Amino acid sequence: MEATYDRASEVKAFDELKIGVKGLLDAGVTQIPRIFHHPHLNLTDSNLLLSSTTMVIPTIDLKGGVFDEYTVTRESVIAMIRDAVERFGFFQVINHGISNDVMEKMKDGIRGFHEQDSDVRKKFYTRDVTKTVKYNSNFDLYSSPSANWRDTLSCFMAPDVPETEDLPDICGYEIQISFIS
């Protein structure tokens, strides 16, 4: 069976559908396609298992320390982000100045985007790195040994904020609000 598996062709076929993982679910897929299998991942490897009591999400405070004992500089933020990404792969930012209300509206917009019909999402599906708004499944789909079970809507806000008409209708208002607030 291994000899007949052509990952490159299956990846290309999946990507050309432009429906992402959510589209597979909407279409009624009953088995996870092989491109999403992680053949070399051994979940019994003790190096991969972390105790929930030892896991701490790195937090980057943009206003300074607990008692404002230091001033946050661009360099210190960059160093904290670099450390968090290298050690954990993710981090949480606090005291960023974006209200909880705006953040909830943003999450609702993103959730709403993914819940739309696949034909609506397809309009934004691209691998074009020059696009400021794009939807796709796995940014590294063609280069990774296996795909992750995820879809992403990316809206790049720098160096230029996308025009409202370039954003998905369901997200445009929420994104523009965050810059007005």
Short account of what is shown:
The protein has 181 residues and is mainly α. 36% of the residues lie in helices and 8% in strands. The longest helix has 16 residues.
Describe what you observe in this structure.
This protein is mainly alpha-helical and about 180 residues long. The chain has one domain (about 1-40, about 95-180). It is about 35% helix and about 10% strand. It has six helices and four strands; from the N terminus they run H-H-E-H-E-H-H-E-E-H. Helix 4 (about 100-115) runs antiparallel to helix 6. The longest helix has 16 residues, at about 100-115.
What is the mean predicted local confidence, pLDDT?
84
Number of strands: 4
Kindly report the spatial arrangement of strands forming the biggest sheet.
Answer: 1-2
Order of secondary-structure elements: HHEHEHHEEH
The stretches of 5 or more residues where confidence is low (pLDDT under 50) are none
For the sheet with most strands, the description reads: 2 strands, parallel
Number of domains: 1
Number of helices in the DSSP assignment: 6
Class based on secondary structure composition and strand pairing: mainly alpha
What radius of gyration results from the CA coordinates?
20 Å
Gross geometry: globular
Helix content range? 25-40%
Report how far apart the termini are: 57 Å
